[in-house]
Design a protein that fits this description.
Order of helices and strands: HHHHHHHHHHEEE
Helix content: 55-70%
Structural class: mainly alpha
Strand content: under 5%
Length: about 350
């Protein structure tokens, strides 16, 4: 008896007939960069890459510029979302009006964060906590599923406040860490847009909403997520290196200024020793004798002014007025006493210098 032929069923899956064939690849995880991305988002991402490099490598070096950019972007983003999504004065604002209001308030916030150092540090700490919270929320997806949306929101707020307090307490290390991690996160987000159309950003929103049964991330998403702490560490090392070089150059400049100041002080001290004199008769008392040794003195140096006064009185007699003659015992500091010639003498006034 002939064997009964079983009916054939047409199917698109050939695995029941050949079990050795591999499973077809998941088309969702095939890396396909965008062919023609939109112009405006592409320009924003390119600008974000420039800002991310500045933040990551020169955050502490360009502190004022980074604080201004942080205040500008944060304030503008928050106000734009509020104006564009919510009704203001019972009126739905257009995109252009919302962008203008957001830009104006963002400029004001940028100036405040740049001029007020504590506000800038507080904002840097907030951004550091939010960046760390977002990374932790994405990294713990395979092992933890939040039961409610309040859990990730509360975790982000707590980490943000903790980062702000730590940055206010230790400004230098946490400013370096915060700017490096934030710049690395911006670079990763821009690369995520060009590679997979902000898949990590959309997954972060889903995690914040605590949506259940989410499909797993693809391998390149995990690669991008893993490059974020690596780029942050490299940026922090680069900033510390730049700070050490700047500190060494500043220390050398300070030392050179101090040495120059000490040399000037020595010169002024030596000049003060040689020119330490006082006007009047006190100029001659002891100064000339201290400068010359006893063997080099002139005998006329020991003549006292009282001797010349008594000599004049003996020659002219008391109460006699005569023209004065100046006697200078020393070219620099000598005793100056009034002398006169005898009465009736035709000699003019003399200036006698005894050296």
């Amino acid at each position: 008896m002939e064997e009964a032929l079983l009916p054939l069923a047409m199917t698109s899956d050939p695995r029941p007939f050949n079990q050795q064939l591999p499973e077809p690849p998941d088309l969702r995880c095939v890396l396909q960069p965008q062919d023609s991305p939109d112009l405006a988002p592409a320009l924003v991402c390119a600008l974000g890459c420039c800002f991310g490099i500045i933040y990551c490598c020169f955050g502490y070096r360009c502190f004022k510029a980074v604080m201004f950019l942080s205040g500008l972007l944060s304030g503008a983003l928050v106000i734009f979302l509020l104006c564009h999504k919510e009704r203001v004065l019972e009126t739905q604002l257009s995109l252009e009006v919302s962008a203008g209001i957001a830009l104006g308030i963002g400029l004001l916030c940028g100036l405040v964060t740049m001029l007020v150092r504590s506000v800038g540090l507080f904002l840097t700490g907030l951004l550091l906590g939010l960046t760390l919270g977002a990374g932790v929320l994405l990294g713990t997806e395979p092992i933890y599923q939040p039961p409610s949306a309040w859990v990730p929101a509360g975790g982000l707020v707590g980490l943000a406040l903790l980062g702000a307090l730590f940055t206010l307490r230790w400004p230098r290390p946490f400013t370096v860490l915060g700017t490096a991690l934030l710049g690395a996160a911006v670079l990763v987000a821009c690369a995520d847009y060009f590679l997979e159309g902000l898949a990590l950003g959309s997954r972060l929103g889903q995690r914040l909403q605590a949506l259940p049964a989410l499909p797993p991330l693809c391998w390149y998403s995990w690669v991008l997520l893993g490059t974020w702490p690596a780029l942050g560490a490299l940026g922090a090392l680069a900033q510390w290196k730049l700070m050490d070089e700047e500190h060494g150059g500043h220390a050398n400049v300070v030392l050179s200024h101090q040495r120059r100041h000490l040399q000037l002080l020595r010169i002024h001290h030596q000049e003060a020793k040689w020119h330490r004199t006082s006007p009047g008769a006190g100029l001659c008392e002891g100064s000339y004798r201290r400068q010359l040794p006893a063997s080099a003195r002139n005998p006329a140096d020991s003549l006292a002014p009282s001797y010349f006064q008594s000599l004049r009185e003996r020659q002219l007699g008391p109460g006699t007025q005569a023209p004065h003659t100046v006697l200078d015992l020393d070219s620099d500091c000598g005793s100056t006493v009034p002398l006169t010639s005898p009465s009736g003498s035709s000699h003019p006034d003399l200036s006698l210098n005894l050296h």
